[in-house]
C-alpha cells in the first residue's frame, strides 16, 4: 500500500513524497529518485570521504535527499561543520519539520549543519568557500541527471569547478546508481588519485562511488 503524502511544484518539476509501508519515497517528474529503504551507499559516500581526510573535515553535501548522507556525516567522528546545498524547498521542509525528520533523528537541528537553499551548480559558481570533503549526490548518476543543467557538473568544466572548492588534499565523492566508464575516465584525467567502489544493492546493478583527491 502506497500513500501519497505531498505533491508540490518544485524548482525542477513535480515532486511527490509518498509512504510505502514503513518507508518513504521521493519521486521527481514521475521518476523514482530516492527512498529510505537502505541508504548504505549514500552513507558510505560521506563516511569514506571523511576517512580519507585527516582531522575534523569541513564537508559539503550536494543534495539533502532523505537525510541518509547527512546523518552519516554527523555520526562520523572525523566531520566538523557540514554545509548542505539543496535547491528544493519542499525537500528541506520534509526533512526539517515533515515525516522525514524522524528518519534521521532531526539532523537538520544539529548546530554543525548549515542548510543552503540553492541550485548547486549556480552556488558553486559564485561561492568562494572551500572544503576538505565535497560529497555529490544530487542525481542518479552522471548520465542520469534530475535536470539537464546538472550534467555540466560531470563534464571537464564541472570537475574543474568542484576541484576549485576543495582545500589542498581534499576529497571529492560522487554517488551513482550505475557504472559510467566515460565519467570515470574524465575523473582520472582531472584528479591525481581516484578510487571506485561498487556497492551491491538488493536488485539491479550495484551503486557506484568515486573518490578523487586533488
From TrEMBL:
Q: Which UniProt keywords apply?
A: Polyamine biosynthesis
Q: Which residues form the signal peptide?
A: none
Q: Does the keyword ATP-binding apply?
A: no
The protein's organism comes out as Amycolatopsis regifaucium
Instruction: Give the matching InterPro entries.
Output: SAM-dependent_MTases_sf (IPR029063)
Q: What is this protein called?
A: Spermidine synthase
Query: Matching Pfam families, A to Z?
Result: Spermine_synth (PF01564)
Q: Does the keyword Metal-binding apply?
A: no
Q: Name one GO biological process term.
A: polyamine biosynthetic process
Q: What is the lineage of its organism?
A: Bacteria, Bacillati, Actinomycetota, Actinomycetes, Pseudonocardiales
Amino acid at each position: 500500500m502506497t500513500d501519497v503524502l505531498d505533491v508540490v511544484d518544485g524548482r525542477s518539476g513535480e515532486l511527490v513524497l509518498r509512504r510505502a509501508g514503513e518507508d518513504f519515497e521521493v519521486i521527481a517528474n514521475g521518476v523514482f529518485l530516492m527512498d529510505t529503504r537502505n541508504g548504505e551507499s549514500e552513507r558510505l559516500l560521506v563516511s569514506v570521504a571523511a576517512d580519507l581526510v585527516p582531522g575534523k573535515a569541513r564537508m559539503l553535501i550536494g543534495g539533502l535527499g532523505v537525510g541518509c548522507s547527512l546523518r552519516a556525516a554527523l555520526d562520523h567522528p572525523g566531520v566538523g561543520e557540514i554545509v548542505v546545498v539543496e535547491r528544493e524547498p519542499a525537500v528541506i521542509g520534509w526533512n526539517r519539520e515533515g515525516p522525514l525528520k524522524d528518519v534521521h533523528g532531526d539532523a537538520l537541528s544539529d548546530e554543525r549543519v548549515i542548510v543552503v537553499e540553492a541550485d548547486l551548480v549556480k552556488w558553486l559558481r559564485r561561492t568562494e568557500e572551500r572544503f576538505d570533503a565535497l560529497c555529490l549526490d544530487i542525481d542518479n548518476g552522471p548520465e542520469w541527471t534530475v535536470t539537464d543543467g546538472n550534467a555540466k557538473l560531470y563534464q571537464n568544466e564541472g570537475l574543474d569547478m568542484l576541484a576549485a572548492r576543495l582545500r589542498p588534499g581534499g576529497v571529492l565523492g560522487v554517488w551513482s546508481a550505475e557504472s559510467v566508464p566515460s565519467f570515470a575516465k574524465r575523473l582520472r584525467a582531472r584528479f591525481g588519485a581516484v578510487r571506485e567502489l561498487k556497492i551491491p544493492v538488493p536488485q539491479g546493478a550495484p551503486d557506484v562511488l568515486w573518490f578523487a583527491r586533488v
